[in-house]
Structure to design on (1708 residues):
């Protein structure tokens, strides 16, 4: 369906050629300051037309909050949001090539198979405009996570075609072991990422090579894919629901729901499958000496006296998730995007009914690579996953906190005095 | 939560040391012949102790249907199933190493952070026994899919450590372009896979190298990960729900919910991100001459006269899914498993409260590689995803079929005669 | 949450003083003709200001479809709809009585207890404008149900205060046994109901007494409640999900979610609790001679050759539902509405913080009885429940239809030939 | 489906003649002491055979916890529970009357219409044994609610046939205004109710008349319905989710999902529809002088320093719920049960296929009135509703508590100093 999340529920609507696209966010905590100004920046980052390597169409994409706030404060009731479509007229059917021939690797044909009705835009909701609602909702989630926990979510382009920021090497089959990678995910921020527009790859040389590669593909009326890496820092421990809704499962679900994605890997990822367990296991160490980041120290959780986790890990092959549950270390993952299906070149295809083969040439200029624009979408979906997991865990922790203390407890650091339970930091 | 699926809902329960593990399957179609004999084979394939490279514990894992069938026929009501735990006594807490020290990269610590209560087994539901309910439910889904559509689901081990069945090459960055791979996924069956026990890699030479590698790791009290590739053939077109529940998103969710998984890629996957769009796009061709597999020809859908898709694709970089919706071509994907966290070697870790560092040595013999045993679990989760999507699509198609025909339709193969809709094959 | 339904999902948003109120309908079958003209009539029937006994505020309430249709045909994608609020400015807080004193029996105080944030309108989403989204969504469901099955949903006012259309008598403790009642529910239509505006009670004399009673309460600046009876005819058999989502449970849920409701009874209702089982049981009789209503005969189900139920019941104490599942007989139920909390009289109350008691006098003219305006809301919620149940049952029936026929069947009309199953009409 | 609840999710399985009936409770807070002894008492109260006016079958109904606890403490993981069926053999089909003739007003026929498969017990999950899972789950919810908030849930029989504990009078059209009723609901406990076994009506004279009436019906091989009234005391304020999941809507849903129910009314109920608004509105008064019940004073919420509501109401026509949200006053409601469909008398009915009319005589002794046994089922379903609402509200409140305080607030008891928000007690 068109709903994501159990506690922070986002329901979206809208195609390319209807009046508006938008969403309803149900479950936003009440009492948070929120205006369009909190949402618009990510909307704008998502927007095409930001450079000469993205498509020159200039969509305005002004978000308008319809409900759920008053005087700039959330009421706790559903937040309706919408963005007007500028080109609202569905295209009339005619004897046009695109009406008769489904575009290769687009959703034209599968949408028709699914619904039995052909939208004028071909692929109906597979339009990139569908992601507008996600980004709007994600911006709200992000604001809460930052205020309550100091959570930081930053994505960047880690490869375009075969140009990689951290190419796999014999020494580092996965970037998880690469100190340069670990240093980057610990420090990267959005401002830095955007300073590398249009490629959004935070390395001058690699970025330049990516831009060259994309330009090259543009000139050939071709397209090329790539990958986006995302890090989520200052995540509270204890997030993720066993067994089907493990945190990495929700992240994978969220990321593979973004149009054009083909793969997801978390922590050491596919490279980690080649590393011995004796190396890959992350040893626990005391967190006593870990410096608390300023965003965390100023967060609501700190104000409320939430205890900090007593342990951390020396390495982070796990990518911040163990047994499906966050351990407080940075969560990082990588998402693969295929080359955009829309290309200016002529392509062979067949009519919808299979009676005739033919040639399809897409008109106009198209994004040779969607990867840089995917950055805020990846961030938004990550925020939605973490937000939902945070609310679930807050609920569990609060529910437990009202129970009488158990009679017998185990001090796990010292010899236990009886049967029973061990107290976690219980974030 | 512990529920998977919207229409074919599976809810599981159970830890390592409780009375039983099991599940409730809600939404199984009524009138299907079903007994324990349909379920047990996959349970047995999942079971440890199948060879000298898996753990020698011999769990019996006999599934017992509790409800939802009579005289071997499903009633349409919830199917309760359970498997008794042989070792039902939770371990008493004592001054033991494992009570004081969380095992590195296990769920011991994160479960405590999440629940604030320590299960005697450490990681609670992160136990491999949790997957029993999944496999039981998956076997039911599979039977339906086979009877109704001739669906075939086969998984196999595609790599262990750095031993790959289809190592990426310059020519084939993704196996999607490799004719040997495509031929294999078009024909492989479970019997063949199991003939390569214990490695379950359907290639004699590669299999042998994998067994050697695993033995090597066993001898060193170490562990090693790997990947499982799965193909789903004869999937009806039209499956997958825009926009958040795209078919690949549901598959990714399902696969990353399996313990120890680190990555998922569908179709061309991460390799596909490096292939030009002009190559990667799958041209449509008429399906008129495609031979109908015997399983499909004998399926309920064929008996009911469901139309076959009129188109297919010349290549299959998409992995059978376009715009989040199945196009009828084989769906294939790959899942990455990390090395098992439990190893016989000594490891440094810290006490739960961080007060002390120490050494943990796991006792007993452990699976040096979980990958071969993961094969039936991957198949089960794939079946659950497809089953859920099938029921959703059947519902949509039936709902539409009761509406009056639209006045104006577009014949998409010929010049259209007016505005309106185009008819898909509407599976 | 603000979502209703599992298959035909309606999510609403909006308060009194925000930009718009609206909803997203997810799961509408594709290929149905649909424009605003199908929806507006019920919106208008819901609107206040239809007579001198309803409030004179004249809200326009024009519904605007945002998405999900093209050229007047549903695409199967989410249908966004909205209605602009004319008075969009939240009321600034000042030293006003209503800011300090919660109105008795309103939601002012409980909303503050729930959200910890006070909306300017007091009760936030408890506003009657919240029902706009329900009515819009209900109109879509109704259209489908009529086209696919010939379903007819008609509600009318059955009592205002102590003026009852069918007052309980010793002979008829429940109207279920009253031939006049049964005849009415079998034949009543909306046009007839609206011919009795403003009371919407389809009996001239009773209607007049109701209008007099309401006028009397208006003159005294007081309010009065009443009941709405609703009948759903031509419902297919087999709707309703055991065990928690029985059809009457879903109807009760839906009706009690309408603002100001206090009670629900189905079929013989509370009166039926006093009738002996030997009388109350509804004997089955052959449906062979039952005339098929024209709406049913022309429905999609008839075109598709759905079998008609072979049985019907001689009496209908059950109200069309047995064991939580529809049996094809008319479903009828009654909903109780309390007197509106807003009255022109002065009332004692206390400040939010309990520090002071005081007097609150609501300004302006108010609806002395909300009951007549509730009629289209009851119909809408009934449509949503039936629509959701229809889609669930279509899915089940279709799923079953693709299974191989069972080897042994029982002909339940004749001596059985073996173990197994009996075939229902399987709608 | 067979799942109830969003946060405290109960999924049940089981028919009359399968191996066991049971449920999985997902979402129980971790760290609560829980053994079978907490659950069995309500199981036993539900059991038939408790007196000479209930059926003499003696089911044992011993509940067995399968998972989710260790050493008598909940782990936070799913709690599997089951009760063995003593008569596990499905009845073989033969040329028996009950195989050919559906029983009037049973679920035999509608189940067949729904599933197309006939269970040997006729009505499949409409069996009273299906309620076992509800009662087991309800007992867990109740324990939590008592420990965390001091919640008390007590139901009793308020009428059998036309014998009413509080018959409606001209003075008291609804018992809401009757001081005797209000005093009863404020004080009644389960021990007192059970001291009036077998009728469970807490009034000596009325109870005796009920027993006589039921005996009379038993002697005539007939059955009679009645009503159960339930009160929930010490409910925190703020429970219930606008707009579709109002607290009364969830209660109505829960109650109408119990087999044989025909009606639900909350607070003043249907009688309240006849009371003027000026009387029916509940004036707010300061709660400063309200004595805190001992159960509340000793609850986890009190220990955690949750503020008590600052207001209460002078009257309680609302039945503790306003705008769909609890206000802290006792919640009371009434549920109507029809006469049991199974009676010893001969009844006319028709064969499943309508080809023949015939006579059906149920064998054996049957419950002439299910109403007294329904008492623990009503309590269980009430507990599930409140539990789910509590967890939702705890989550919201906790989420809000981590946000920075708003800059401007309104002191609603005193002249406000600016725009913004008013603080509720925020339970």
């Amino acid at each position: 369906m068109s709903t994501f999340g159990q506690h922070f529920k986002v329901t979206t609507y809208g195609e390319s050629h209807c009046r508006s696209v938008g969403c309803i966010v149900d479950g936003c905590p009440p009492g948070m300051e929120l205006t369009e100004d909190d949402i618009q920046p990510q909307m704008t980052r998502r927007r095409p037309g930001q450079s000469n390597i993205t498509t020159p169409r200039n969509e305005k994409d002004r978000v308008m909050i319809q409900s759920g706030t008053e005087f700039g404060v959330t009421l706790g009731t559903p937040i309706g949001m919408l963005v007007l479509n500028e080109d609202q007229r569905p295209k009339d059917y005619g004897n046009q090539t695109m009406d008769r021939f489904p575009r290769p690797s687009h959703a034209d044909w599968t949408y028709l198979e699914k619904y039995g009705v052909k939208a004028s835009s071909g692929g109906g909701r597979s339009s990139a405009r569908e992601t507008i609602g996600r980004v709007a909702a994600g911006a709200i989630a992000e604001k809460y996570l930052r205020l309550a926990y100091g959570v930081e979510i930053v994505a960047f382009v880690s490869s375009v075609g075969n140009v990689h920021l951290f190419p796999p090497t014999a020494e580092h089959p996965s970037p998880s072991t690469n100190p340069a990678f670990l240093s980057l995910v610990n420090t990267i921020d959005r401002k830095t990422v955007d300073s590398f527009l249009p490629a959004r790859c935070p390395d001058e040389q690699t970025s330049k090579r990516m831009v060259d590669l994309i330009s090259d593909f543009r000139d050939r009326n071709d397209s090329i894919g790539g990958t986006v890496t995302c890090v989520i820092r200052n995540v509270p421990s204890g997030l993720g629901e066993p067994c089907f809704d493990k945190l990495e499962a929700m992240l994978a679900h969220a990321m593979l729901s973004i149009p054009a994605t083909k793969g997801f890997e978390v922590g050491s990822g596919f490279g980690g499958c080649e590393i011995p367990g004796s190396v890959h296991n992350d040893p626990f160490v005391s967190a006593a000496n870990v410096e608390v980041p300023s965003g965390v120290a100023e967060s609501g959780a700190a104000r409320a006296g939430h205890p900090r986790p007593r342990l951390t890990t020396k390495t982070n092959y796990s990518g911040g998730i163990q047994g499906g549950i966050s351990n407080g270390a940075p969560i990082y993952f990588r998402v693969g995007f295929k080359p955009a299906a829309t290309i200016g070149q002529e392509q062979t295809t067949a009519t919808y009914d299979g009676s005739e083969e033919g040639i399809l040439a897409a008109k106009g200029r198209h994004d040779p690579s969607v990867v840089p624009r995917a950055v805020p979408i990846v961030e938004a979906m990550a925020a939605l996953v973490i937000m939902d997991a945070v609310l679930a865990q807050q609920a569990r922790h609060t529910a437990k906190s009202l129970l009488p203390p158990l009679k017998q407890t185990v001090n796990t650091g010292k010899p236990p005095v009886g049967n029973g339970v061990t107290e976690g930091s219980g974030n």
Remarks:
- Chain D touches chain A through 39 residues (CB under 8 Å).
- Residues 3-399 of chain D form a domain with the Chorismate synthase, AroC fold fold (CATH 3.60.150.10).
- The first strand of chain D starts at residue 3 and ends at 4.
